[in-house]
Amino acid sequence: MVVDSTAIVTGGGRGIGQAICEKLASEGVDVVVADIDEGETGETEQLVEARGQRALSVETDVSNEEDVSDLVETVLDEFGSIEILVNNAGIAGPTNPCEDVEPSEWDATMNVNLRGPFLLCREVIPTMKEQSYGRIVNIASVTGKKPLLNRTPYAAAKMGLIGLTRTLALELGTHDINVNAVCPGSVDGPRIDRVFEKQAEATGRTYDQVRSEVECQSPRNELVQREDIADAVAYLCSEESKRITGQDLNVSAGKVMY
């Protein structure tokens, strides 16, 4: 990592985001935890500070332009620079056939999962250009590559996020700003449990049947752990990956290989 780096991690209060915050802190990065529920960020702050790094929580709705602008202004006031942006905040969206998805559900999913990363990138790019350095990592999904039954809004948003990643990599490469995506497979934890429950309900199967089917899609017969995603993000923010940009890296235990 660049010495005295500062990272913004959206959705950093729990799950994958929390693991990313802790991992970056272990690499010597100060971390700003941007989360829509600031009340859930205390544990993440403690994990970052336990690694000897500064932590700051900022309540942020990533789909709100004013919130995003205020976030970046606050970070620059407190830390002076932004070297790393991790667009991790996301929602699962509905689990229904397309014809049963409400337009409001579509909009909500797009607003968080695609509009949010766009707004964050748009806001930090001028600073990264000015300092001639930046690392942006978007947390997409293998669902942006491989269809997932009854998840149309989520799949469309994640595929769009991969498109955003590639285009920004092309635009920003000459400024030493790398833009990559990490595409997790099914990450073990409460969020995927809720998805499995909804899939089971929608298809008339049991939770165990749905989970077993997903596990069997991996050559390793297992789900991904949140630490696997954090390790990939840290690598893409490191100097060892300085000539890697515009990529969508699968971390899926082999579920998707393209």
Automatic annotation (TrEMBL):
InterPro entries: NAD(P)-bd_dom_sf, Sc_DH/Rdtase_CS, SDR, SDR_fam. One of its GO terms (biological process) is monocarboxylic acid metabolic process. It holds the Pfam family adh_short_C2. Gene3D superfamilies: NAD(P)-binding Rossmann-like Domain. It comes from the Archaea. Belongs to the short-chain dehydrogenases/reductases (SDR) family. This is NAD(P)-dependent dehydrogenase, short-chain alcohol dehydrogenase family. It comes from Halogeometricum rufum. The lineage of its organism: Archaea, Methanobacteriati, Methanobacteriota, Stenosarchaea group, Halobacteria.
